[in-house]
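Lecture 7 notes: from sequence to structure.

We start with a single chain of 306 residues. Read the sequence below before looking at the structure.
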Amino acid sequence: MSRAESRTNREDWLTAALADRAHVFVSGSPSFADRAQMKWVPVLRVAGHFPQGIVPPEGENRQSWLPPYYKIMTLFMTLEMPTQQDVDAYAPSSADLNILEWVRRTFNLPIDLVAYPAQYNEAGLFDRIWVDAGGAEKGLMSPQQYADQLNQQRAGLKDEEPARQKLVNKTVNDPFQRLTRSLLSRQLAINDLDALVVLDGTIAVIELKRSNMRPWAPFLDDVPNFILMRSLSRAIPLVFDVLVQYSETITVSAHLHHILGIDRERLTGYGIEISGTDGPNVVEHLVERLQNPTPRAYSSQNRIHR
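Now the structure, written as tokens:
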């Protein structure tokens, strides 16, 4: 299947090996899209908002402040298309809907299907996106219309800041990220779910980190993402979040990290090296470790019944 290159394509040896396995979703992977018989490469994302009653501090401290956790709001499955004309003509295929329903059942969360063009307009975004938010209405709308709908779902104080944000100028991974950073309230946090692996009784949500640094440890710059991922794993029974660091050029090893403690000043956890003879073998050992981790990662809702 031929496919136009886009910034959401993140294929490398590890994502390709993951995408070859059943019961796995890999964001930005043409190999996964081909296996799922999808024309457009999907990216899975999660959104959370400040918990009800949580009020950020005023003044200079607002910039660096983070909530203790996020209330999980919705998932997105986004599809980047080359042109506005492709988005205007889009109709979900059976393959698109099958993957969407699989993710919805896996997480038991609402999920929006969003198609957007890779081309920017003169305003720095795009004219129209195609949205199915799970309701009766679906189809084309402006980015601002969609952002307004999302902003109204947040639980924090509505007047804490204006819903309309100034367009960002900094480099972003893809146009959808530009939309979220430009038009959504800062009370909302959105992060990609790089991969998810459905195991025997549990679901691993994996954040992928490509780096040649040795030794490597998670960066404090990513604390907001780690809080959102931890919030997702706490909100959904049997979901746990992990981080996998690897080199794009060294195809015989990767490092599995479990982050145990998260705050602005320190990250605590442990890492395990996963080795193999080649990419598929490394991924096979990685999945085995996720299925039988030592120590065992879990999410519990057990209570003593008296």
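The chain is about 25% helix and 25% strand. Keep this in mind for problem set 3.
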